[in-house]
Structure formats: C-alpha cells, structure tokens
Amino acid sequence: MKSITKIYGAGLLFCCLLVTACNEAEFLKEKPKDAIYSENLFVNYSGFRMAVNALLDFPRQERADMIQSAELSCIWKIGVDNGWANAELSWTRGLSRYTVDLNAEMQLINRDTEGRDGLFLILYRAISSANMIVARSADPQVDWEGATVEANEANRNLIVAHARLIRAWAYRHLALTFGAVPLNIEEVDGLNYRNDWDRNSVSEIQSQIIQDLQFAEQYLPDFSTDVLILPRVIAQHYLAEIYLWMDDPARAEEEALKVVNNTHYKLITTRYGMRQNEPGVPFMDQFYNGNILPSQGNTEALWVFPNSDVIDYLGARANSMRRSWIPNYSAYAPYTPENGGRGIGRLAITAWAFSIYEEQDDRFSPYAVRKSYTGYEGEVIETQMDEVNMTLNNNQWASTRKWDWTYTDPDLWNATHSFADQAYLRLSETYLLLAEAQMKLGKLADAAVWINQVRQRANARAITAGEVTLDFILDERSRELITEEHRRETLVRTGKLVERTRLYNPLAQDIQDYHVLLPIPQYVIDANTGKPMQQNPGYN
User: Fold this and answer.
1) What is the pLDDT of residues 85-114, one digit of tens each?
2) Closest by CA position to 171, among listed 124, 218, 216, 215
3) How confident is the model at residue 23 (pLDDT cuts 50, 70, 90)?
4) C-alpha to C-alpha distance for 56 and 166, rounded to whole angstroms
5) Cα first-last separation, the chain
6) Is the C-alpha dihedral spanning 343, 346, 351, 354 positive or negative?
7) What are phi and psi for residue 63, nearest 5 degrees?
8) What topology does CATH give the domain 1-28+36-230+495-532?
9) How far is CA 223 from CA 18, 32, 114, 262, 303, in A?
10) CB of 368 within 8 A of CB of 340?
C-alpha cells in the first residue's frame, strides 16, 4: 500500500543531517558515500536541490495530521466566522469556543501528548533549515554545476530564492499568529547558540518577510511546470498580502497585478480534465486528482502540493483534509467513493458560511457541497447546515467536497489519510487581494471587476461598485476559499477576527480581544533562561 511503501525522504532529510546510525570509529574509517550529512550534502547544486526538496515539505505539513487527528492548519480555520470544531479534542475545544485557558489546553501550539513538536517549533525548524541553506550557499567551493559563471550564479540564486520564500512563509505564520517573535536569519551552530532571545516587533518581522519575498520574486522563474521549482507568482501573491497587512494598498495592487497579468495563469472557467464529460462545474474540476498540476491543465494553481504517483517525486506527505472535513457518516451510510471516502469530521463549516451563497452559485451546488449521502439501503439521507443543528458530533452536517476521494489511490479510498495532489494557493485568491487593495484606494469599480470575475465563474450574480466593502470581500473569500484559506490570519490582518466571529459563529461567543494573538508556548518561554520572555497579554 502507498501509505506504507511511499518513501518519506523529503520529510526526513534534515534529520539525516544531524543523526547517523554508524559507530563513530567505523564511520571515521569507512567514510560511506551513501550517507547524507551536511559536509557531503552542501557541496554541489544537486545536494542543495535535495535540501530544498526537503524544505518544501514544511508547508505540506499544514495539511497533514501532525498533532492529533486533524490537519495542522486548522489552527487558522476554526474559532472564526466560518469554521468550528465539530468533534472536540483538548486543543480544538479551546480554540473553537474560547471557553477554556488556551495556554493550558492548546496542545497544537504547545506539544501533543506524544511529545512531537507543536506548530511553533515546526515553523522555527523550517526557518532554521532555510537559514542553513542560505548560509551554506555562500561557500565559494560549492560546485553549482553550471556551464558558465552566469549559470552557476543562476543556480545559486534559485536555491536561495526557495529558502528565503519558505522562511518568509514561516515568519508570516508566526507574526500573524503570535505577534512579536524572535527573528533570526543566521545558521545556528554550537558557537552561536543562544538562550536569551528577544521578541522582535511585528514591523521588524514584516520587513524581513518583504526582503525575503523580494529576493524570491527576483530569482524564481516566471512559470514552472515542475512542482519542485516554485514560480515567482507565489512571492508576488504574498507581497500583495503583506502590503495590505501594512496598510500600503498601492504596493499591494502593484504586486497583485503582476500575478493576474501573468499570461501563464487564468481562472478555470470551462470544464477540463479527468471528469469533464461527467456532470459537474468548472470550479470543482481544479480539485480532482489528475487535474491539480499545471502540466495537467490547471491554470489557476499558483502553488501545488505534490503527493501522488502521477509525478516522479521522492516522498509523499499524507494529508488530512478529507479526514478532517468530511464527517464520520458511517452510522447511517457506508464509506464509499460515491460518498466521498472516509472522514472523521473533526472540523466543520459554520451555518452562516453555508447561508451566504446564492442558490445558483456553483460553489454551493451539490458538486461542491455534500448535501446528501446514499445510505446502506440505497436511501438518500439529507445533510444539515442550519444553525439549530450546529451541535457537537453532528455526523450529518454538510461539508465541502473539495477534499472528496477523487479517482486516485484506487485501493485506498477507505484509508485514513489521502495522498492526492492538492493546490495550496489559487489565482482567485489573488483576484480578491487585488480587489481589496483597489477598494482601499477608492477604485471601487475596478475592485468590482475582479470580484465579478470570481463570482461569474461560479454563476453568481454580478455586483456593482457600490456593493464593494471589506466585509463583502471577506464574505466572498469565504464563498471561494472555504477550508483552503487561513481564515484566522485573514481576519487578524484585516482587524475583523473578534467582530465577525461573534457575529457569525454561535459557538465562539466568548472570544475576547486578546484572542487575536495566541499564546507563546510555555516551553519556549521556560527555555529562554538567559532573558525573561513575556507571554502575550491575557494568558497566564
């Protein structure tokens, strides 16, 4: 089975840099050529390429079951206006309802019961790995395997651009989640180890993110069909977002326009790919395995997480999206491919989020939202999506079909996790970032044009310039990006988390202003013995 035989080479590579299984004396005698460690990895372009492939696994961990029975990135998707925890665990209870001490309860931020790293350390491991790549790339002895001096420099810049993009990705998550955090862009070794870290300001973190993204924008390719070589549109997308976060809509507009005007990318507006001759809608085609990759016709995906056997990729990361968002319907219907495959429904979409679609909107159609199941006797069992039934452990709750089993892994549709390819960033989100920037600049008619392209693709009615507001854009982001978007971060960035969560999520009425930031893990504070590190306000 794939879940057993897939090689997790990318995810384990950096562990191999630090640990060997050899006896030290024998190691010194034999010097085996097949062992991977820093001294023989960072010597040529091929070695750096292996390190970058490992680095690209960190973002893919967002959609994996890294902590306890739900996707890691649910930290940014529940306890908000459009997401809640249907089946509660210790850490999801506090985050979903804000009725307990988050600092004590949230195993996701601290560590899980098995002692694995929580979110905070996973992000800093990504930063540390990126710092190592950047630092080692400065060695003049590296063989960059180019035919000319210019080719060598291009190969080096490509490697560093990937490392700095991932470093920016990690610091973006940290600052939007925890606020001020320690900033370090140097490789940590035995000579510069510290236990007296300061928490750098959010503005300092933002400045470093921008520098890293600008470098990535300059040196990543304009387009790539190789999912292990990322295109510059990712950096431009994040630059647009961070400039909005910093209230600089003019620069945000400039960066977003670079993405939407790139002729390699366009919205999916017609049926294509694996299921184009079956009933469906264009919006959903981009979520079917076999349609995800740019090489498979997906013109909307900016950043793709590869997992399947369709491509020659060393290693795969089991993702938990189907498991997390599809309810455990087995009490009244069988696990079948037609019913979407196996789920346990830890996470769910709020009743409000279902209520804001127009009836004809393709994103609310039965192809996009699970509105019924076929029971054991072939009967049709309708799902629920009204607020009165928004109760814990409701296994009949409606769900998105973005993560259904879709004709991949024919022997594994009933498996716990999925190995489907998945799009991580989509062009439609950039359209909505552009609309937000233009709305802030007072260009309401221009903003409406970009919003309407997203809506018209879904058969929703066109809006007028007078309807463009920040709240409307946030509503449209929910309609378009539900379960994909880091919703908490969007609402924190726009200053709307507390207001909209109280307004639309009946289970999260106890959210307080200080919940905009989540607590720094106590073990991080305790380990900083050289200097006191302050906890975020509101957490004891």
Assistant:
1) 998 887 788 889 998 777 777 656 666 544
2) 124
3) very low
4) 7
5) 47
6) negative
7) -100, 15
8) 1.25.40
9) 34, 39, 41, 9, 11
10) no
